[in-house]
C-alpha cells in the first residue's frame, strides 16, 4: 500500500458554532494514506459539520488542517476537489434536473470545436466513467431525478471517487444500497493507490469489514481514536452515547394468529411488483426483506396512494379499496400513514420548524381565522414528540437544521399525529445512529402493542429480525418466502433474498429466478 504510515490529512482542534449552538467544540483526527478510517457518532455529534468543513462548504471558527503536510483551508467545494479531497454526501448533492452525464462531468464539460460544451462529448466521457465503475446499465442521457435512490447513491459515490486523489469522504454511502460488495471493491481499489478514505456509517459490521481504526465523536468533540480489533461494539456504543446501550431483543406479546386483517392484498401488481398476496393483522409488525429493486418500493408507494396498481385487489379492513392518493390512503379503514425512504425530498419541509412539520396533517385543526397559532402548533407537536423521544427544545428549530435522526423522529411523530392505525415505514432507520434507532424501535413496538399495525421494509436484516412478528421476502417482484418466530434467522433470510436455500421449494425458487430475469 502506498505511503501506509504517512499522514494524508491531519485535523487539529477544529471548532464551529452557529450562534449559541456549538456544532464542533474540539475535533482532532488524522488519516493515513491508503487507510480506511471510520468516523463514528450519534446523529448530532458533529459528523456532518466536520464533513462540510473538509469539503469546503463550511469554514471552521478555530483549528487547523493539513493535507499531505501542507496547510489545507478550502473556501468552497471546488477548492477541496482541486486539492484532491472529494466527498460523497449522505444527502445527495446531484442535480435532479440535469442528466447523468452533466452531473458527472460538471463543472468542466468537454467542449467542441467552437469552445462550447458538447453534449455528445459529455455523454461519451460519462459512459467511459460509468463503464469503469461497473455502471454501464445507467443511461448517461437520463435525468438524474428519474433514477432510483440506489442508483443516485452510486452516482454520488462515483463522482467523488473521480475527484479524490488524496482523501475520499464517504458519508453513509450504503444507506440506500442493499448490497455493499460493489462499493467495498471500489474502496479497496482507491486505497491501493494511496488515497485515504474517511468512512462514516452507523453499520458497525461494515465498519469492521473495511476499517482498522475509528474516531468517535460525541457532542462535538473527538472522544477517542481506537483500534477496532480491540474495541467491542458495546465499547463503541458507550463512547458514542456516553452510556451502555442495551443490545438484547425486546420481547413483546405476539398478535393472535386469527387477528383480523387490516390489509389484505390479492395478486397485487404494479411497477416491478408481480401478483403479491399478503395480509397484515391487527397489532402485527410485518417486515419486508428484499435486495434492491425487487418490488418493495412499488408495494409501499401503491399502499400509500402514490402509485396506481396495474392489477389485483386491495382490501382495507375487509373492504375493497382504491387508494388514489395519500389522502385516500389516510381515510381508508383506520387510516394508512406513510414514512418515505427519502426524508429530505419526500418527507420534510426544511424551512418549517419541527413542530410545523409534525402538525401538517392537522393544520386545519390548529388554525384560527386562517392562521396557524404557534401555541396550538407547539401543543399538538408536544403530544407526540415524547412518543418518539424527540426533545421539546427542537420543536422550534427549522427541521432542516436538525440532525438526520431528529428529522426522522419528526416524520414518525407526524404519522402518529394523523391518528392512522396502520403505519407504512420504508427503511425507517436509514442513516440514523444507534440511539435514534432504539427510540424508533420503541415507538413501533408501543404502537403495535396498542393495537396498531405496522408494515415496514428495512435494508438491515438484524432490524427485521429484531422488530418483525413475521417477515416476507420479496424476490423477482413476488413473495418468495415467509418466516415467523424461531424461523426469523439471518442465514435463512440471506438464502431467500437470493432466491434459494430457505425459499418455498424448488418450483417456487425456479419461478422466482425466472421472474427476476
TrEMBL record:
One Pfam assignment: ABC_tran
Database matches in Gene3D superfamilies: P-loop containing nucleotide triphosphate hydrolases
Record protein name field: Ribose transport system ATP-binding protein
All copies of domain ABC transporter, residue ranges: 9-244, 245-501
Keywords: ATP-binding, Nucleotide-binding, Repeat, Sugar transport, Transport
GO molecular function, one term: ATP hydrolysis activity
Species name: Prosthecomicrobium pneumaticum
Family: Belongs to the ABC transporter superfamily.
SMART domains: AAA
PROSITE patterns listed in its UniProt record: ABC_TRANSPORTER_1 (PS00211), ABC_TRANSPORTER_2 (PS50893)
